[in-house]
TrEMBL record:
UniProt keywords, alphabetically: Repeat
Residue ranges of every copy of the DYW domain listed in the record: 723-815
Species this protein is from: Gossypium barbadense
Domain of life: Eukaryota
Segments forming a coiled coil: none
PPR repeats: from-to residues: 204-238, 274-308, 375-405, 406-440, 508-542
Protein name: DYW domain-containing protein
UniProt record similarity statement: Belongs to the PPR family. PCMP-H subfamily.
Endoplasmic reticulum in keyword set: no
Membrane-spanning parts: none
Any one Pfam family match given in the protein's UniProt record, by short name: PPR
Length: 815
């Protein structure tokens, strides 16, 4: 202990007289000090008045030592308290340790010091020491330790403390009683809480509030209201806290009438000006969708706090009134009250809802200027906003600069990448997340499942499935449905079916839709229809998506009559009005099956402006069935919508080529060249080992390109020997026939198949996923290859699956 310098020395001798003349001791503590020796009284009053700086406390401490009163119990406990309040727990403990047999009053000072400095483990350790050394304890000691147990979520130890309190008969105290009630309520042990509550001799409003608040937090709203009535009958007047709990209960029950009645009670009990109650009312009305009522409560608030501003702003965002929320934010700024991270988080969520990137950027500016960019929740909301607006560069910028990232941050970034089509980057990010030891949650994993589905990566999909199983997330209906979708999209329809048919799986309509879609993609139209009828038998109501899945399943399997019946039954039997998607699927079904004229009539009768999808379906039908007249009309219309879509030119030129109208083909090519349009490069993915390999059409830079060339060269001669004739109509370049054939043999799926043959065991299955529709020649070639190399080849193209086995494809050349 340093000796006090001259200045503090003087100050110490000047102050007490002034202090003593002004204050009576009873104001220092509720105990009566008059029986204490005068010098002890003097130090107590000094500590009371001058404990706001460490220097003054140390000086007083030094004086205490000099005056040889450092062993005084009551004085020491005050010294411990003063040091603890300054956060100097080490010094407090030194004072404590100087007393050989501390009484509860001193121990409690130390316990309280630890508790208020969030040293929960130390609080419990000291209590253990008190028990082991037989120093004795009282209800206050138990109260402090119980709070520490609650903070550490240590239910077992808390129960031991309560048992010891009961053994020592200190549990009758009403403060400890409230604490015990709080403790049991926090851990959802409602029966024990009620038992303690019933045994309490004197119950003040705080005890009642603990019980009622606990019930509300545990969503036992009826119990909360019953207890409230009991409280009134016992003659206890409710406080603001009571009413806050009841208002929250009304929000929880989503019962507006009840909410209005509780609002009435608030006025009856004269709590109509209380800020907390008002804020709770605003929150309740917002949650119940009554933003006008929320606003009027807010308007009459006599003193608005930042919390109440935040609650009303967040209420508007919850009710999708984002711009009203911004108006309020402007008003808040005009009042000069300032805002905090809570305000901004709500507004960011609002911007994410309406994908308002510009306002989001303005908020980002505020965050930066206010120095709030170290707040994890805030930055996570920012990452989420940028991701939802598709601004991945900004999202990554914020993400990379964050020092602390939690699982929600990582998930927001990952979902952003996944939803903006960067599935591979999302999977890579997941790898990094694991390296940093962040445990994925259910949302992370499901979004990875979607990535795997997108990439057609069955192996990665399986490993994510295993992870979901390990964490016990795999049985949730959303997750299970995502897995079904993933297995179907990765070509393993049988496994998707197994997951779906599992008796323990409680399916919802989305699960049924996923399975129907899966069958459709795999050309199993009859199974899709059977499933639909089963779904109806089980009493489920189909939705719009169900019919999109069904119509497209019929379309991929050529089930025209069944599709027609479904389309008609949609409105007549299920009261679902057909939208553009339904029309597009139906037009696709008709035109694929060659009913081009019928499809055209249907388009003309559509109750809304025809969409691009509808005409693309018609155009594709025209290509398949060589209907030049309607094909040209459809292409013209599509080009009037978007003259830069290379797909349309290619389709049109295919139609002309089928009709051997080479002059027109040349003209189209000229147009494309003139407009600087290039075909989207084909890309095929194949998974070998743990790696996903990508091949682009025409590419010859792959490390294995020599071997790939050799394999393709051999295949070409074998296929030609079996009678294969190349179909060069889909090659648009102005080159001679030999060059065209050469370019066909560099289509991405052929490169990927050759790579697969090179690196996978003989006889094993080859899975490929492709970004574009497979071309006619590749389809023929893949059929031949499956026969020659005796392998099953599954190709997922932009539309559907093709299972090639022994020279045939599951699509029956219908795609
Ligand atoms: Zn091709
Ligand atoms: Zn096929």
């Amino acid at each position: 202990m340093p000796s006090p310098n001259l200045n503090t020395h003087n100050f110490l001798y000047k102050v007490p007289f002034k202090f003593l003349s002004l204050h009576s001791f009873s104001s220092i503590n509720n105990a009566n000090f008059n029986h204490l020796p005068l010098d002890i009284q003097r130090f107590l009053s000094l500590l009371h008045e001058f404990s706001n700086t460490l220097l003054s406390v140390k000086s007083i401490h030094a004086q205490i030592i000099t005056n040889s009163v450092s062993k005084h119990h009551f004085l020491s406990s005050n010294l411990v308290r003063s040091y603890s309040e300054l956060g100097c727990l080490g010094l407090a403990r030194k004072v404590f340790d100087k007393i050989p047999q501390p009484k509860p009053i001193l121990c409690n000072s130390m316990l309280n010091g630890y508790l208020r400095n969030q040293c929960y483990k130390e609080t419990i350790e000291l209590f253990e020491l008190m028990g082991a050394s037989d120093w004795g304890f009282d209800s206050y000691s138990c109260n402090f330790v119980l709070k520490a147990c609650m903070e550490l979520e240590d239910y077992e130890r808390g129960r031991e403390v309560i048992k010891r309190a009961a053994d020592h008969r200190v549990d009758g105290d009403k403060f400890l009683g409230s604490s015990m009630v709080n403790f049991f309520m926090k851990f959802g042990d409602f029966d024990s809480a009620r038992l303690v509550f019933n045994q309490m001799i004197s119950r003040d409003v705080v005890c009642w509030n603990s019980m009622i608040g606990g019930y509300v937090k545990g969503c036992y709203y009826v119990a909360a209201f019953d207890l409230f009535l009991e409280m009134i009958l016992c003659g206890v007047r409710p406080s603001a806290i009571t009413m806050v709990s009841l208002v929250q209960a009304c929000g929880g029950t989503r019962n507006l009438e009840l909410g209005k009645r509780v609002h009435g009670l608030v006025l009856v009990f004269g709590l109509g000006t209380d800020v907390l109650v008002h804020t709770a009312l605003i929150d309740m009305y917002s949650k119940l969708g009554e933003h006008e009522r929320a606003q009027s409560v807010f308007d009459i608030m006599p003193a608005k706090t930042l919390v109440s501003w935040n609650v009303i702003i967040s209420g508007y965002v919850q009710n999708c009134l984002v711009y009203e929320a911004f108006d309020l934010f402007q008003k808040l700024i005009l009042t000069g009250g300032g805002f905090d991270s809570g305000t901004i988080i709500s507004l960011l969520q609002g911007c994410a809802q309406v994908a308002d990137l510009e306002s989001g950027k303005v908020l980002h500016g505020y965050i930066f200027r206010k120095g709030l960019d170290i707040n994890v929740i805030l930055c996570t909301a920012l990452v989420d906003l940028y991701s939802k607006c598709g601004a991945l560069k900004e999202a990554t910028f914020v993400f990379d600069r964050m020092k602390n990232r939690n699982v929600i941050t990582w998930t927001a970034m990952l979902v952003g990448l996944a939803q903006n089509g960067h599935a591979e980057d999302a999977i890579r990010l997941f790898g990094k997340m694991q390296e940093e030891g962040v445990t994925a949650n259910s949302t992370t994993l499901v979004s990875l499942v979607h990535c795997c589905a997108h990439l057609g990566s069955l192996k990665k999909g399986r490993s994510v499935h295993a992870r979901l199983l390990r964490h016990g997330y795999a049985f949730d209906v959303v997750n299970r449905t995502a897995l079904i979708d993933m297995y179907a999209k990765c070509g393993n329809i049988n496994y998707a079916e197994r997951l779906f048919e599992d008796v323990s799986f409680l399916k919802d309509v989305i699960s049924w839709n996923s399975m129907i879609t899966g069958y459709g993609m795999h050309g199993q139209g009859h199974k899709a229809l059977d499933l639909y009828h089963r779904m109806l038998d089980e009493g489920l109501k189909p939705n719009k998506t169900t019919f999109v899945s069904l119509l497209s399943a019929c379309s991929h399997s050529g089930l025209v009559d069944q599709g027609r019946r479904l389309f008609l039954s949609m409105e007549s039997d299920h009261n679902i009005r057909a939208n553009e998607k339904h029309y597009a699927c139906y037009v696709d079904l008709l035109s694929r099956a060659g009913h081009i004229e019928e499809a055209e009539v249907l388009i003309n009768q559509m109750p809304f402006q025809s969409s691009r999808e509808v005409f693309e379906a018609l155009l594709n039908g025209c290509r398949m069935h060589k209907n030049i007249d309607i094909g040209i009309k459809a292409a013209d219309y599509l080009l009037s919508l978007d003259a830069t879509n290379p797909g349309i030119y290619i389709m049109l030129s295919n139609i002309y080529a089928e009709a051997r109208r080479w002059d027109a083909v040349d003209h189209i090519r000229g147009l494309m060249r003139g407009r600087g349009l290039k075909k989207t490069p084909g890309c095929s993915l194949i998974e070998v080992g743990k790696q996903l390999h990508a091949f682009f059409a025409g590419e010859d830079s792959h490390p294995n390109s020599v071997e790939i060339d050799r394999i393709l060269e051999n295949l070409k001669s074998e296929l030609e020997a079996l009678g294969y004739v190349p179909d060069t109509s889909c090659v648009l370049r102005d080159v001679d026939e030999a060059m065209k054939i050469k370019s066909l043999w560099r289509h991405s799926e052929r490169l990927a198949i050759a790579f697969g043959l090179l690196h996978t065991p003989a006889g094993s299955l080859i899975r490929i996923s492709k970004n574009l529709r497979v071309c006619g020649d590749c389809h023929t070639v893949t059929k031949y290859i499956s026969k020659v190399v005796k392998r099953e080849i599954i190709v997922r193209d932009a539309n559907r699956f093709h299972h090639f086995v022994d020279g045939k494809c599951s699509c029956n050349d219908y795609w």
